[in-house]
Amino acid sequence: MGNLFKNIKKSNGRAMYLLPIFALFFIQCNGQTKSEMKNNNPYYDTEAKGKLQLDNEKLKDILPSDVYHIAREKGTERPYTSEYNNHSEKGKYHCAVCGNKLFESDAKFDSSCGWPSFFAPATKESMIYLEDNTHGMQRIEVQCGRCETHLGHIFNDGPPPTGKRYCINGKVIMFEDEKENK
Predict the structure, then answer these.
(1) Among 57, 90, 98, 118, whose CB has the most other CB atoms within 10 angstroms?
(2) What is the mean pLDDT of the chain?
């Protein structure tokens, strides 16, 4: 791989058009689509109720590494990279790890913060709220109410009627189109 970049540099940029092709190739080879991730995950069930105890070692084998990092190691995706950041279709957003319904599309709004934002969860039981004092900040972490997956944080600068902004990592949610339910 190192020689590839040396050769590109030596060619005075003539081969720079190849970089996006290589990047796309590596992304496609190392990642799973949301559909593949859902189908390969025995924990994913949009109808299940009750708490779910997950084995992190098994999840490492099931989830793509970037999803696992956010879900179980409390990581964060880069801003403005989520497929759901500017998403406006009608439907429901579920936890990508267990399928728990988290948000309705009617609660989604454009906060311009770089992550998908919602002003209310689907139900009170959809979320768990924890104090988070990491990185020198005082915040409230939100986790999936069923499997305790790290979703993001909640802030008090959202629109009416709640005044809340659930700032959510798009990698750990899955969208179910309203049409799929009919």
Answers:
(1) 118
(2) 85
**CATH number of the domain that residue 50 is part of:** 2.170.150.20
As annotated, the active-site residues are: 167
Number of domains in the chain: 1
| 0.90 surpassed by pTM | no
Burial of 162 per CB tally in 10 Å (0-12, 13-18, 19+): middle
* 141 part of a folded domain: yes
Coil/strand/helix, residue 1: coil
Q: Write the secondary structure of 70-123 as one string of H (helix), E (strand) and C (coil).
A: HHHHCCCCCCCCCCCCCCCCCEEEEECCCCCEEEEHHHEECCCCCCCEECCCCC
- Structural domain of residue 159, as residue ranges? 33-181
Residue 27 lies in a domain: no
State residue 35's pLDDT score: 78
